[in-house]
Structures are given as structure tokens and as C-alpha cells.
């Protein structure tokens, strides 16, 4: 049987499995966990260990049709300004909750479009966070940037507040593809943004691309990759287009008949990947590429690559405090998500409470499986010896699952007492193999396809 047929028979094109930016995944969180557990867990944090902070800005001036992010469109600044006021109130509640002396090692602003904020709101928000959780000496501050929604003044304001990493959304440079996804973005505008970011001292620049978009073919994607290489990013994320119109209603505007079909998607991803590795990038996990000097490549080389809600990261900090509507905190006791809808989040904060509304309390078994899945997603290798050392007898619960994976995936995997390793030929199946270690029923939840 041909390689692609074998991958297909193992579910490459029809499995609907999570991307495992967390385990358990957010759709299986329960409403049994809320603000009470959030407050207790935050209050019990060890103040000597720096935390990471994620701030969610759920607003965009444009609403791209392909986008599955939780965000709302606005043409005026007033809802944004009012939301910043709510974030400040959430920070005030956190100040009363968190232990004294807690410091922030990383901060990430995501969305939506954080660069919808004008300079005065950028300063207000950054100062409000610092007043509650002061940064460490070496802290990193990264921001998601829409190149069409930023200017020099905003970049200068972010740089003044310490931004040293940035991620820009590109998706595809081809005008026909851009038209089909409702997101026009000229190369010149993107290039000017990159130049301004570099001039402002950004040393780690990521570019987001998406394959599997309507009208994309090898020639168009190839041209996009050439343009991206001209921009010299340090990292590239190459996401497979997740067509989930049952979650993201605006995707109903996408012409489904123009979407590349399964094998074509696979070929698009493979082609772009070979262009990036051919240009000297290191492939990282299932969908990232990085220059060897970049932190992500160094983390991958030293076993420090991790996965969080933004995807791959070199941030090894175990605690993440999510601030803003829908943000998820990863705390020593488990996950807590703030009310996903902005209106519900605002109502909770304005009532003077934390906004946690769903989550998951981690058992030891969950922690074991979470780390096992993270190892598979990051390293294509589950280090059984490391899991035994960390989890002792609990790790035995994986043995039967590992044997099942060995039987099902044959020579796409190597299994020894030390490790379960996915061979390069089996790496397109990574999400499917990871899902073999997921104990929570996924039946009720519909994810995007695995390739
Ligand atoms: C918050 S957005 C990017 C920041 C900024 N708003 C922009 O548009 O440039 C995060 C990224 O998620 C990715 N993304 C959004 N919707 C997606 C989908 N349906 N499938 C795959 N990737 C998606 C895109 O690559 C996008 O750049
Ligand atoms: S891709 Fe960016 S700008 Fe477009 S809707 Fe999504 S978050 Fe907003």
C-alpha cells in the first residue's frame, strides 16, 4: 500500500481530533469549576515562582471570514476603551487575591487584535498589569499584531512598555485567496510593519500562515512562502485551516467548493514545510518552523519545548494567569476559564467577582496524560522513563494504551521500555496518536480535521 493510503487508512483525513493546546481540552471543561476555585488556587500560588500572564483583547476592526478566534467587530473605540476599564477592575480583584511578591516572567497579549488599542490605552493596560504583577528583570512581552491595524506610534508605545517579541498575521499573500477569506493585506503594508517592528528592537518575530484556504494551490502558496522568506521572520506558524462553521458562524461566508480537498491540503502543507526547511528553518512540532538561533528552536533542541493555548512555546513556566473574556488560566490545581462571552465576563467583573465560569480540576492521572500528550505534540516522543520518574506507579496506566498504539500504528511508531517514538513517516498522524491518550470522551465535540 502507498504511504498516503496507509496514512489515510489510519484516519489522517477523517479523524476529528484536538490540536492539544491543553489537556484536557477546553471543550470538555465543566461548569463545576468557577470563581471560588479560581480565587483559592490563585491565592495559594507560590510567590517565589514567576508566572506567565495572558491578556485577551476580543475586538477586531475587520472580521476575517476564515477566522475561528473568539472576537467581535467594532468600528469605534468606545467598547474597547470600556473593556480596558473592565480589565483594570479584574486586575484590582486579582491584586486582592494574589499572594504578595508574585512576579511576571512572561506576558502575552492576544486576541482578537491587541493592536486595535491606541497608544494611550496600550500604556494604561501595560501599567495596570505591572502595578499588580511586576515583571522580573528578564521578562518577555509578546503581542499578536495585525499588520493592517498598527502604526509606528502603536509599535513605539508597545516597545516602550517592553514588547520584545511579536507575531504578525499573514495567512496568505495571494489576492484571490485573500478575497476568498475576507482579509485583504498587501505585501507592502506587511513589509512596512515588519520594518517598524525590527526598528523598534523586536528580536523574535513570528509570522502566521494558513494552508488549506480557498483557491490555494501549490503555486500560490509557494509565492506566499517566498514573500514570507523576504520578510525574514524568526519563526513561522503554518496552521491547517480549521473549517468549523458550526463554531465560527462567519466561516459560512467561505465558499466550500473552493477549499482544497484532503490530499491537496496534505501536499500544500508538505510543500510549504519543505520550502521552510530548505531555507534553513528547523521544523518544530506539527506546524511551526524556527531559525536555529530563535528561542523556539533552542527549546526544541534541549527538550524544553512546551505547548500552551497559543501553540508551541519556549515558556516553561507552569502557571499561566489568563485575564480578560474567555481567557484560560493554568493553575497548580487545574484550568479555569473566564466567562467566554464578553458581556457575561464584563457583568461578573463589574459585580466585583472573578470571572471563572468553567474549568477542570487536574487529578494525578490527568497530569500524567497531559505531560505524555505534550511530549508527543512537542517531541514526537513520549519519554516513558521521564514519566516513570515523575509519576511513579501512576505511569503504568499508559502501558496498555502504548501497546494499543504500537499495534494500531505499526512501523509508524517505535516502542521500547524507554520511549514511544513517532517515526518521521508517521508524524502526520501525531494528533491522532496523541488522542489515543485522551481519557475524555470527544464524541460530543467536533474538532477540525487532523491534517
Ligand atoms: C488572533 S489571530 C492573529 C492576530 C491578528 N488579529 C491578525 O489577524 O493578524 C491568530 C491566528 O490564528 C490563526 N487562525 C485563525 N483562524 C483560523 C482557522 N480557522 N484555522 C487555522 N488558523 C486560524 C491565524 O493564523 C491567525 O493569525
Ligand atoms: S484573523 Fe485577526 S483580524 Fe481577522 S478576525 Fe481573526 S483575530 Fe480578527
From TrEMBL:
SUPFAM superfamilies linked to this entry: Radical SAM enzymes (SSF102114)
GTP-binding is among the record's keywords: no
Residue span(s) of domain Radical SAM core: 45-279
Biological source species: Salipiger profundus
Documented EC number(s): 1.3.98.3
Keyword Transmembrane: no
Cofactor descriptive note: Binds 1 [4Fe-4S] cluster. The cluster is coordinated with 3 cysteines and an exchangeable S-adenosyl-L-methionine.
UniProt name for this protein: Coproporphyrinogen-III oxidase
